[in-house]
Amino acid sequence: MGRKVFGGFSQAVLAVWALLIIAPLIWTLLASFKSNGEIFGDALQLPGELRWDNWARAWERASIGRYLLNTAIVVFFGVAGTMLLSSMAAYVLARFKFPGNRLIYFLFVSGMAFPVFLALVPLFFVVDGLGLLNTHVGLILVYIAYSLPFTVFFLTSFFRGLPDAVAEAAMIDGASYTRTFFQVMLPMAKPAMVSLTIFNVLGQWNQYLLPLVLLPGDKSNWVITQGIADISTIAGYEADWPALFAALSMTVLPVVVAYIVFQRHIQSGLTSGAVK
Amino acid sequence: MASIVLNGVDKIYAGGVKAVDGLNLEIRDGEFMVLVGPSGCGKSTALRMIAGLEDISGGEIVIGDRVVNHLPPKDRDIAMVFQNYALYPHMTVEENLAFGLKLRKMPKAEIAKRVNDAAKMLGLEQYLKRKPAALSGGQRQRVAMGRAIVREPQAFLMDEPLSNLDAKLRVSMRASLNQLHERLGVTTVYVTHDQVEAMTLGHRVCVLRDGLLQQVDTPQNLFDNPVNLFVAGFMGSPSMNFTYAELVRDGSGAAVAFAGYKLPVPDATFTEKPGLDRYIGKKTILGIRPSDFEDASAANGNAAGWARIPVRANVTEELGSEINVLFTIDAPPVEHKDTVAAQNDGDEEETATLPLAGDKSLWTARVNARSHVRPGQNVELVVDTHNLHFFDVDSGLAIGHEANVGR
């Protein structure tokens, strides 16, 4: 009984919530096909025709393609590095006893409590000092460092939950520590790895502040979030709102597609941490 | 195949807890050795030290003719079966079996042959392409066995491999294990807390308690000649009945008196247990196995010369083929540290029995099902007085046991 009432109520709340999220997205998508006049007309009106030239203009003039490629490169190496390093760190922290283990673990965890804003200025000088300012390598390294705390924290608790006996069985079977990790324990951590990969992809894809500080120069190095900010400024001057919305749609689509494809993993990742 | 020798092996954990204390044990080539004891007795630790999964704090472990103290597990040429199977969940059964062989750079053809042989032996052929998640508990157990078998190691180490199976499957797997050992003849060290498993599987059984070796012997010898109160109480189910008793000798010969009963002690007992005559006139602890009782009316004259004791049955447990008769005798229960340890299976704080018997001892007799005894009835039991066990009140050691002479 109570379950059913609550079910109905929560469904309604979820529906409202979904509407709040989806409506602006759909409006953005629709607006990308509208003309300037239609955008400032009735908000509920559908575009008169599919004006693909808005998209073409955004793609060519605002070099969205360039920004998407840059972002893809940075996020790919950023996430790959994050996952590799944090899984190795978390595995050792979770399964090996050595002096300083707790200290290192808490250093990682405390990184989560440290807002990136506070580190911006020193970070700028460090990256500059390394000669990596305005390079993708610099941004990738900072992304990795900034994603490690949460990823290590989450993976450590996951690795702790895995049975010791499996690692021991691998040892007896003749696997080295490295092989035990890569061929036995890491595959067992796949659910956590997949969901954390997605979290990190989304997080790094949407990162704006760090590239703004670390890639201030050459426009051809920019990532998508910088590009969007730039386009919205230009669009304001030129009053080319349809092109702005087309560019926005282009940047949102890859993320939405990724989210839909991996939706199941995101859910299972969220709950697996709660139950264990 | 190889023998395994433990020379004064110690395991001391941080904080000074001695999990294994000066363990000396020789496991012969091809022998099935069972380590048994209540939980926390150090049996698993001992096994893990043989495997190389735990460091050795002191002493020496020899497998074959090599001292393996500092060898990593993979160089000890042993295979281990874990309690929770420890299969690789992301690999198929076939890959699970082949993993250890691949790591040893064995030729593909040889791997395939061994995997198929093992699968055939264990009836796993149709499951080779499945992953462990798609197998039942018994099948997973067999895969775990198979992973050990394909390696063709010097020794198998098994850590309570049957304890996760349900009761029926456990019995059939126990039989399969026996057959398997018969066929392969590989030296096996098997850890269990279940004394039935220990009795049925082991060529010899090693009883451990608090890290200390109590007795190593064949199952029958452990049952017939336990070295002390702990082994006597731990081995055998239902466990041995104990009471304080006095040995006396009068005109009609020697006898043991307890709780108003007086059982004659045959002369043969005194020759079997040298030193027992020194206890005449003194207090000892008497032990009688439930199986050494019989209902006088159901004994059909097979009990000629057995002593009779009349008792009142409090509770009867009918098992079909026999009946456990629980009765109280008018004597305080024996509260020796050894009997308490044998009854408490590990970390349970509370005692397992209800205080129904008050300050009397609750005894069990296992009688023939034809006895038809009911709770509350008076029944005349006969006792096989040739199998009485006597223990020293202070030390708890079996009087006259060869290992205890001179101790």
Describe it.
The complex is a heterodimer of chains A (276) and B (407). Chain A contains 14 helices and no strands. Chain A is an all-alpha fold and 276 residues long. Chain B has 407 residues and is α+β, with helices and mostly antiparallel strands. Chain B is built from ten helices and 20 strands. Chain B has helices at residues 43-51, 93-103, 108-122, 137-150, 167-184, 195-201, 219-224, 229-234, 267-272, 337-343; strands spanning 4-12, 18-27, 32-36, 58-63, 66-67, 78-81, 155-159, 187-192, 204-209, 212-217, 241-250, 253-258, 261-264, 283-288, 293-295, 307-318, 322-329, 361-368, 378-383, 389-391. In chain B, the strands form four sheets. Chain B has a six-stranded mixed β-sheet, with helices on both faces. In chain B, strands 13-12-11-14-20 form a five-stranded antiparallel β-sheet. In chain B, a hairpin with a 2-residue loop joins strand 11 (241-250) and strand 12. In chain B, helix 2 (93-103) packs across helix 3. The radius of gyration of chain B is 24 Å and the shape is elongated. Chain B starts with a strand and ends in a 16-residue tail after the last strand. The A-B interface holds A 163, 165-166, 168-175, 179, 184, 187-188, 190 and B 51-53, 72-74, 78-80, 82-90, 99-100, 103-104, 147, 151.
Outline of this structure?
The complex is a heterodimer of chains A (276) and B (407). Chain A is an all-alpha fold and 276 residues long. Helices cover 80% and strands 0% of the residues of chain A.
